[in-house]
């Protein structure tokens, strides 16, 4: 219990200390107009207040990742707590903040456009395809996961196919309509339900004195299971997630002032880390140890564990409300996954989104592909999602490092986690069955070489960009606010 409470405290302290440091490194400009005003179109670009943007950002980024990932990561033991805390403060929140703020400085640009500007034109095309793939996987995973939860919650009284169809209908509406019509209007209520469920489960763990394992040298992780690189891909959204890089530009287009960025981008990642801590602790303590957790994962799956843990902590009624809060998470990330995919394709093709017909012809093929993907086994999708997700995070961190290097600022805040995760993702894809299937030792060597080459290429490109005085920001000097 001490480790759990200390980790929660560290996450909160991290927001007020390292978060402030990162903000100081970036240097916000409160007088600079944001894209919400300079590009206002009434659909994707429009100003919304900090509270609303923060709740939307939290729900956008917090899909099943900070719940399903930590539950599976709990099999590695208390070391999962360390990755959630350190990853969240020094990698995930930095990743989200820099992506959001650099996007604000570049008219709300999405990651492919930022990658093209700061990492080279070829990267724009590569990241564009990669981001669309990731968002399709996310959208599909976030259809099947909440559908399974709802199906279990209703004891199979409503058909799974009908539930999936209803979720798709909602996603279509949320993808096509202006952001303030559904997302901006209903997310505050969804956010309240999410927070109530997380606080309920977390409070239940503390009040009942759940046997949450403490971190020690003897109990670092069970059976000496190899944690690198698997832990760092299993627990993603609760520590570091490339999916967030596809979501923050949605809110960069509705943020009113740069000063709000630390609360919206850095702060909401910290909130997600707290949610991840709660579910990792619940998984470690409620099912008779790691062997019991492993049996539960095999027999009832991650969705089943969420339901069981909620009922154990809060009873039948409270548990149902908690599960509803968990169901909200993937749904409120799935809808923005498709919305983000639409926006990325529109930006790539320079296609205006003011008319709903223009949005429709981009969105419908995306949904058709996603429907086909729902027929694929969830566990297979999750493996590809995990690698694609963290690889996207790597790209976003290198974009952040490049931006700061060119600006002659402390680029190490992005480069250090970027190097670490480059090594992790490369080791995984070289070793995994879905990748090259090499031995672990060979994968370590190969990943080290690839990472070293990427570092060298980064410095060559960064010094060239600095010499050529690459423009870091869009010019808004001629902009005047219309009363």
Automatic annotation (TrEMBL):
Membrane topology summary: Multi-pass membrane protein
GO cellular component terms given for this protein: plasma membrane
Chain ranges passing through the membrane: 75-98, 126-147, 159-179, 186-207, 227-243, 264-287, 312-338, 359-381, 387-406, 411-430, 442-462
InterPro entries referenced in this protein's UniProt entry, alphabetically: CstA, CstA_N
Position of the signal peptide: none
Domain of life of the native organism: Bacteria
Keyword annotations: Cell membrane, Membrane, Transmembrane, Transmembrane helix
Primary location class: membrane
Domain CstA N-terminal: 3-150, 163-298, 302-427
Similarity comment text for this entry: Belongs to the peptide transporter carbon starvation (CstA) (TC 2.A.114) family.
Name by which UniProt lists this protein: Carbon starvation protein A
Native organism: Cytobacillus dafuensis (Bacillus dafuensis)
């Amino acid at each position: 219990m001490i480790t759990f409470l200390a980790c929660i405290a560290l996450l909160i302290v991290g927001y007020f200390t390292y978060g402030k440091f990162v903000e100081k490194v970036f240097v916000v400009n409160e007088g600079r107009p944001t894209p919400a005003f300079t590009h206002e179109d009434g659909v994707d670009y429009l100003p919304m207040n900090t509270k609303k943007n923060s709740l939307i950002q939290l729900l956008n980024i917090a899909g099943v990742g900070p719940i399903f990932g930590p539950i599976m990561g709990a099999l590695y033991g208390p070391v999962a707590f360390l990755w959630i805390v350190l990853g969240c403060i020094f990698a995930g929140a930095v990743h989200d903040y820099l992506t959001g703020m650099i996007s604000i400085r570049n008219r709300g640009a999405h990651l492919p456009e930022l990658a093209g500007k700061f990492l080279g034109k070829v990267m724009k095309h590569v990241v564009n395809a990669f981001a669309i793939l990731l968002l399709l996987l996310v959208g599909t995973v976030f259809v099947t996961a909440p559908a399974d939860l709802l199906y279990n919650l209703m004891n199979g009284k409503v058909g799974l196919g009908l539930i999936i169809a209803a979720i798709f209908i909602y996603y279509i509406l949320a993808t096509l309509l202006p952001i303030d019509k559904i997302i901006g209007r209903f997310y505050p209520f969804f956010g309240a339900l999410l927070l109530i469920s997380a606080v309920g489960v977390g409070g239940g763990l503390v009040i009942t004195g759940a046997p949450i394992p403490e971190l020690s040298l003897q109990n670092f992780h069970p059976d000496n299971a190899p944690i690198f690189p698997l832990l760092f891909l299993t627990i993603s959204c609760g520590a570091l997630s490339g999916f967030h890089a596809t979501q923050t530009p949605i809110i960069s287009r509705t943020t009113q002032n740069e000063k709000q960025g630390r609360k919206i981008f850095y702060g909401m990642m910290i909130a997600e880390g707290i949610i991840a801590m709660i579910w990792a602790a619940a998984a470690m303590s409620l099912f008779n140890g790691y062997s019991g957790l492993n049996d539960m994962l095999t027999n009832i799956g991650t969705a089943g564990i969420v339901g069981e843990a909620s009922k154990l902590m809060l009873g039948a009624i409270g548990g149902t409300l908690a599960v509803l809060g968990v169901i909200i998470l993937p749904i409120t990330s799935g809808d923005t996954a498709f919305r983000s995919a639409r926006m990325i394709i529109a930006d790539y093709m320079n296609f205006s989104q003011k008319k709903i017909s223009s949005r429709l012809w981009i969105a419908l093929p995306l949904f058709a592909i996603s429907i086909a993907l729902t027929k694929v086994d969830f566990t297979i999708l999750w493996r590809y999602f995990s690698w694609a997700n963290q690889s996207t995070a790597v790209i976003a961190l290198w974009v952040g490092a490049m931006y700061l290097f060119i600006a002659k600022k402390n680029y190490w805040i992005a480069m250090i986690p970027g190097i670490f995760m480059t090594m992790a993702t490369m080791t995984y894809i070289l070793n995994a069955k879905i990748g090259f299937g090499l031995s672990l030792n060979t994968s370590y060597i190969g990943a080290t070489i690839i990472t070293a080459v990427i570092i060298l290429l980064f410095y060559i490109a960064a010094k060239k960009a600095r010499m050529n005085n690459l423009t870091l920001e869009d010019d808004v000097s001629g902009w005047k606010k219309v009363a």
